[in-house]
Amino acid sequence: VVKMVQKYQSPVRVYKYPFELVMAAYEKRFPTCPEIPVFLGSEILHESRSEDGAIHVIERSCKLNVDAPRLLKKAGVEHVFFIQRNTVNWRERTLRIEAHNETFASRVVVRETCSYSVHPENEEWTCFEQSASLDIKSFFGFESTVEKIAMKQYTSNIKRGKEVIEHYLKELISQGITFIPRWTPPAVSSQEDELNPALGCDSGDIPLDSGAPGASKEQAGGACPPAEAASPEADKLDADYIERYLGQLTPLQESCLIRLRQWLQETHKGKIPKDEHILRFLRARDFNLDKARDMLCQSLSWRKQHQVDYILQSWRPPALLQEYYTGGWHYQDKDGRPLYILRLGQMDTKGLVKALGEESLLRHVLSINEEGQKRCEENTNIFGRPITSWTCLVDLEGLNMRHLWRPGVKALLRIIEVVEDNYPETLGRLLIVRAPRVFPVLWTLVSPFINENTRQKFLIYSGNNYQGSGGLVDYVDKEVIPDFLGGDCMCTVPEGGLVPKSLYQSEDEAENSDHIRLWTETIYHSASVLRGAPHEIVVEILEGESVITWDFDILKGDVVFSLFHSKRAPEASPREAALAGPSAGDNVQLIARTWVLGVDYSRVESPLVCREGESIQGSHVTRWPGFYILQWRMHSPLPCSSTSLPRVDDVLASLQGSAHKCKLIYYYEVLASKDFR
């Protein structure tokens, strides 16, 4: 059985006229209305009034024309009929309209509910709301076609409804009718009040056979409740607010926003995100309600877990970051978007990662995104129009192979992933200037991880092409173009420079324990090397040619780096692990003292002496499967046999003082040979 369900929920549309005058305008379109060609006529089936005249009910059969004559004739139908029940309550000043289809009722179920009521804050204004559902059970194999016709025809008539009401309101006013007295209870002896306006059909209220599609297919019984289920007290959006603060949305986009917002109000226990934030997730998923809801829920969970809502209050960038991070806010672009400048070519990304750790860099990037959202809200108020994204100007002057350092690119990709998942559709435009020849290599590495919608916002200028017409002046006012790009505006963004190696830190020193960790593992690991107790890590290679790459910095002391191969899996000796215990900290020994070099394992890279303060990068193409052991041992100026193994008394001696301890931070990765660049 084919089953397709669509839902629609309108925002609150406001008529700045009293309820009674709006009802008089509503009456003028009865029984037919030239303004609504699809409505061919109606017949009253039943009409009743309460004894005091306060309640007036009319039930009609409405005849509609549908823009699908071939399909209808194939089904043996000329027109489509709906049953509409209107209930006006003059005492409460409300009109409720309920409608359902009579034609094809066994195959397609269309239900619509509309309501007119007094504005809660101004009793001289009238509110209109509309919700509907379309449930296609089966339609001769044309279910998808019916759905498309439904969406097209229904949405084309939604906003038309308000226009028609306003047309007749103006007509009434031109006739001198500007006030209609409110209903009052009749005296006991008086006749029934004959002055109550009769009720006709509103184009915005007429249910078309095309039903009420939402912006996404939704199975019955899904996680998102139907829009009609909202409590009357729920905080609602009105159409004027949407246009002023969120921008022009189609009726279906409005419906998606309202329904997702409503679902959050009913189910989410934490802080409800702002409307513009919800809208970004809908845009990121092309207004597919289910996908946007899943993405948003994951992000809300992430924000709560890592206390991101408080990052602007709690995060204070370290002095080193303030000095060497070459980014900052700088006025706004021509569209009123906040402008962020990043002098990436001048930034020592390698030094920042090694001195601060990627955790601090990520936290700083998150604070920039949070600040960007705050600035968008401020600019929306300043410029009187919706500003929901910002512009980033990236200067690549100085970009070189140092920036293509693999651990740095990996850290960048991880940051991009977090931002894409939690700050979608916040980047309005990315202007890249002075792109050097090495840029295509970086772009090849990074672009696959950037959302297609985001990639389309990139504008790239090489050399001096950013100058003159077609360049920056098309997007940024000349008065705010920074001085370092040939403009007249002084820019306070730091100029960066190389981070001194003396500031490089080990993993435990770099991470701030006051914060909940955003990443459970870091790119760089720290290790201690003791006299007689090297630090070793093992890499298992299952197939022939792979590439082991490494990158490490010696923070203290001199060490010797070696690479070994073994067919046997090494294990840390319990005795040695216990002896290396608390003082050794992050020190692991894997080569058993009983192993013999040349028998149990073999050397595949010559020993390399690494001095304090040095940065070492290298790689090895594996020739055989098995276990490869990376080893760092303390360098001794005295000659010693490369086959000598750490003895228990050597380890005990090494624990006597901290002078016999080296420190390093390292990164390693295994790549298929085809992926190695």
From TrEMBL:
PANTHER family: SEC14 RELATED PROTEIN, SEC14-LIKE PROTEIN 5. This is S14L5 protein. Transmembrane segments: none annotated. Residues 520-670 form the GOLD domain. Residues 188-231 are annotated as: Disordered. GO terms for cellular component: cytoplasm. Pfam families: CRAL_TRIO, CRAL_TRIO_N, PRELI. PROSITE patterns: CRAL_TRIO, GOLD, PRELI_MSF1. Residues 6-177 form the PRELI/MSF1 domain. It comes from the Eukaryota. The gene is Sec14l1_0. Residues 220-231 have a biased composition (Low complexity). Residues 317-493 form the CRAL-TRIO domain. InterPro entries: CRAL-TRIO_dom, CRAL-TRIO_dom_sf, CRAL/TRIO_N_dom, CRAL/TRIO_N_dom_sf, GOLD_dom, GOLD_dom_sf, PRELI/MSF1_dom, SEC14/CRAL-TRIO_domain.
